[in-house]
Amino acid sequence: MRPVSTTTSRPPRRRARELLSAALTVVAAAALCWWSLRGVDWPSLLDTLRRSSPALVALSVIGYTLAFCVLDVTGFTLVYRRHLAPGVPVRDVIVVVCGKLLPGLVFPLLTKVVAPVYFRRRWGVPALRTLGATEVLTVADAVVLVGVVAVGALLTDGMPAVTAPLGAVVAAVLAAFLLWAWLPSARPLFPRLRANAFLSVLVRTSPAEMLVQLALRFGLVVAMALSWWLLLLATGTPLSPGHLVQFCSVFLIATQLPISVGGYGGPQGVCVLLLSDAWGLLSQVEAVALSLLWSTAYLLSRAVVGAAFAVPVFRLLRAGGPVEPEGAARA
């Protein structure tokens, strides 16, 4: 069965923007890797990698991957059932969430394609509405990020100078948006935006729903912090709780920016910038080795999960036509 043309065809200008975005991401990732690896003694780097504990590295990777999949599936299931299709099976959400990991390693924006195609073909939901639903989790991620950055700044000195103003700007934008979405007195403002297919799901998300998503996304941050703690143990690197929170807050910012390809780029820059240059806790070689362990583990774990769901997600995207909205509402 042919894919629905409205979700696969793109105007030339949009394709050009996507290609430019991909090119800039590759350049940024390459520049960060070059900056981090400049002057590194390769025999020392390989020796540092060999000294790491394989068991702790494996535990770090497997634990974080499981937590990521479980929490992501839970968050997306709640949003999809509440705002898109009440009858969407959890197994379909699992396939969509896990199946998008493999193409996401090649080009992160490809992760935004899978769910819109599925909901358009299976449930007749417009692509923009599905994209808006996924952004509920993005908003929750941003709120958690601001909170973690604030806690990290309070616990330990040494945050990069740009972190505080950047966090303040993000916090102000989030506060303004949520007040506009939730305050009854703000409803007359920009009524067309409230009816927009992309923003309508975000506007309809209640504070109680957002609170649940915040708890899930905070759980993901805790899982990431534990994963890094295990990775630090695997390399024999001591890091205080304050530094760990601060490190994770900056690392979270890096993960939200288009500066990594396949997990390489941003992690190398953050590890060298904080652990070596700013805090002096590790040598450049040790910081690079730690970042390469994370990036390689990230690549392999997501590649394995994505490959396991590659065939199921392909079949899911090709199966069946749209379900009637009434039938979806009764499911």
From TrEMBL:
Keywords: Cell membrane, Membrane, Transmembrane, Transmembrane helix
GO cellular component, one term: plasma membrane
One protein family per Pfam: LPG_synthase_TM
Localization per Swiss-Prot or TrEMBL: Cell membrane
Transmembrane segments: 19-37, 57-80, 92-111, 131-155, 162-183, 210-232, 244-267, 287-311
Record's keyword annotation contains Transmembrane: yes
Membrane topology: Multi-pass membrane protein
Main location: membrane
InterPro entries xrefs: L-PG_synthase/AglD
Name the UniProt record assigns to this protein: Uncharacterized membrane protein YbhN, UPF0104 family
Organism, as annotated: Goodfellowiella coeruleoviolacea
